[in-house]
């Protein structure tokens, strides 16, 4: 029996349709691409000569261990431009291997691997100088760059998280 012209076209189009559908399929997007980092400042306002502590907690949301973490905490650009603002990191660490000597670069040394669902936290305490600038618009704020690897090093995530600091009061 002889095939008709429309049958030949349909048979030729089927492989092209399958290839087209396969090539157009996009990988599934990750349901939650936010970084699994929680940051809290213990004081919304700190007086000159006082101190405040940042607590940073990393939680592993994956079903494989997080095996490598790099994290830094740095002052924001607005904080760096504030004239007369004086503060320094005076203590660092807890529940990690501590912090690097240069607090503003590569600060966290997490104990890895970090098991699925587990959390690890560290703190950084800052002291505001007694002669620091102060006032209702004077703030010390930070940002944190976080990079980590999981799934045997085949996957990673990174990004910048705003870190609320403290307002520096004069009294």
Q: Uncertain regions: pLDDT < 50 for 5+ in a row? A: 16-32
Major sheet attributes = 4 strands, antiparallel
Question: Which strand order do you get reading across the main beta sheet?
Answer: 1-3-6-5
Distance between the termini: 99 Å
Task: Tell me the β content.
Answer: 35-45%
- Rg on CA atoms, Å: 26 Å
Total number of strands: 8
- Helical segment count: 2
Structural class: mainly beta
Write the H/E string, N to C. HEEEEHEEEE
What's a concise summary of this model?
The chain is mostly beta strands. The chain has helices at residues 5-24, 77-81, and strands spanning 37-41, 45-47, 51-59, 66-75, 87-92, 119-128, 139-150, 155-169. Helices cover 15% and strands 41% of the residues.
Describe this structure in words.
By secondary structure, the chain is mostly beta strands. The protein has helices spanning 5-24, 77-81, and strands at 37-41, 45-47, 51-59, 66-75, 87-92, 119-128, 139-150, 155-169. A hairpin with a 4-residue loop joins strand 7 and strand 8 (155-169).
Highlighted features:
171 residues, mainly beta, 4-stranded antiparallel sheet, 4-stranded mixed sheet, 2 helices, 8 strands
């Amino acid at each position: 029996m002889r095939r008709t012209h429309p049958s030949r076209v349909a048979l030729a189009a089927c492989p092209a349709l399958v290839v087209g559908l396969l090539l157009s399929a996009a990988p599934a997007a990750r349901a939650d691409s936010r970084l699994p980092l929680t940051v809290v400042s213990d004081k919304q306002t700190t007086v000159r000569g006082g101190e405040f502590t940042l607590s940073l907690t990393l939680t592993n949301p994956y079903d494989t261990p997080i095996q490598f973490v790099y994290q830094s905490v740095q002052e924001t650009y607005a904080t760096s431009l504030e004239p007369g603002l004086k503060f320094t990191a005076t203590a660092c660490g807890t529940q990690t291997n501590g912090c690097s000597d240069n607090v503003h670069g590569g600060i966290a040394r997490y104990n890895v691997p970090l098991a699925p669902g587990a959390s690890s936290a560290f703190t950084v305490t800052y002291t505001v100088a007694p002669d620091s600038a102060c006032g209702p618009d004077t703030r010390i704020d930070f940002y944190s760059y976080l990079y980590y690897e999981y799934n045997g090093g085949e996957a990673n995530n990174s990004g910048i998280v705003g870190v609320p600091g403290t307002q520096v009061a004069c009294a």
